[in-house]
Write a structure and sequence with these properties.
By secondary structure, the protein is of the alpha/beta class. The chain has one domain: Arginase, Chain A (3-Layer(aba) Sandwich), CATH 3.40.800. Helix content is 35%, strand content 19%. The strands form three sheets. The chain has a nine-stranded mixed sheet with strand order 1-7-4-8-13-12-9-10-11, with helices on both faces. It has a two-stranded antiparallel sheet with strand order 2-3. The longest helix has 22 residues. The termini are far apart.
């Protein structure tokens, strides 16, 4: 069974055709504007002939181990489709992401896999993606993928983890790996607690018992109230710089449920009082720009629970923001 699944990648998703709506609301292909390329066309191969660098994109549609039964496996395809509603032009910097080559590796075939089998496939796919491009953006899938993906980027003794999440993800492991315990699993696997910073943790969304485990392990926890007081850019930049002083490689786990519930109806774990999308975009950009970040995952979206694609659109913009930061990184890299 393992051999048959080994490194099976589903076909890449066909990009939606960019189009405009007529007054009646119907879509007419003839109205495509050649001067308004979409981010979907960019990830499908429409990039500069002389790109400044490359970024890998990998879908991991895993739903195994979900505490709340959800269709997380649908999210990678839906997030990709939302890129058809964005352009690759970064207005804030005046740069176009098409200067960056996207190596879209499609979706890993783990939607029906048991977690133990999926772990091996995830780890090998993430290692391969980093070998191809130096950095990978992962579209989940639930948060259980974080444990396997983080272990893949290098020895845990030289790896650091930044989570942007409402939850500690330190639940007990006695019922096996779930989307509620990837950080606990990584501690068990050997990731030092002082190599972990958790940003955006919310009151009344975590238990005292697990807060004590974080404290005992030496994890730095930054609640959402402190994020607001200091500002998201300062918080993320300082966290990344601290981790970079003690580790050679950083993995970023971006759980969409860190958002306020009104902005993330498709994230089952989101609650009122979370971050705003604009804060999350800035955080993703900071992570993309940091030289030691090798991977980021964007997880915990159930498209069947979304309203007006609000959550999926936000996830797509997080990917674009990370890519914008990464573009700055590779452009400024010493030759």
């Amino acid at each position: 069974m393992k051999g048959r699944r080994h490194l099976r990648i589903r076909n890449k998703i066909s990009s939606p055709i960019p189009a405009q709506h007529t007054r009646s609301g119907s879509i007419t292909v003839s109205q495509v504007d050649e001067h308004w390329p979409t981010a979907a066309s960019w990830i499908s191969g429409r990039h500069s002939q002389n790109p400044v660098g490359a970024l890998a994109l990998l879908g991991i549609p895993i739903a195994a181990g979900s505490i709340t039964p959800s269709r997380y496996d649908l999210a990678p395809d839906v997030i990709r489709s939302m890129l058809g509603k964005y352009s690759p032009f970064d207005f804030s910097s005046g740069c176009d992401l098409s200067d960056l080559k996207i190596i879209d590796l499609g979706n890993l075939d783990v939607s029906d896999a048991a977690y133990a089998e999926a772990c091996e496939l995830i780890a090998e796919a993430v290692r391969g993606a980093i070998e191809k491009a130096g950095c990978v953006s992962i579209l989940g899938g639930n948060n259980s993928l974080t444990r396997a993906a983080c272990r893949a980027i290098g020895p845990l003794s030289d790896t650091a983890l930044l989570t942007i999440d409402a939850h500690l993800d330190l639940r007990d492991l006695d019922r096996g790996p779930t989307n509620g315990n990837p950080v606990r699993g990584l501690l068990q696997d050997g990731l030092p607690g002082n190599h972990i910073v958790q940003v955006g943790i919310q009151s009344f969304a975590n238990s005292e018992a697990y807060a004590k485990i974080a404290q005992q392990a030496g994890i730095e926890v930054i609640p959402v109230e402190r994020v607001r007081a200091a500002g998201i850019e300062k918080t993320i930049s300082e966290a990344l710089d601290r981790l970079a002083r003690i580790a050679g490689t950083i993995y970023v786990d971006l759980d969409i449920d860190v958002l306020d519930r009104i902005f993330a109806p498709a994230a089952p774990g989101s609650r009122p009082g979370g971050l705003q999308p604009s804060e999350l975009f800035l955080a993703a950009r900071c992570c993309g720009e940091h030289p030691k970040v090798a991977a980021i995952d964007i997880v915990e979206i159930d498209p069947e629970k979304d309203i007006a694609n609000a959550t999926a659109l936000t996830a797509a913009a997080c990917f674009l923001s990370f890519a914008a930061g990464y573009r700055v990184r590779v452009q400024n890299r010493p030759m």
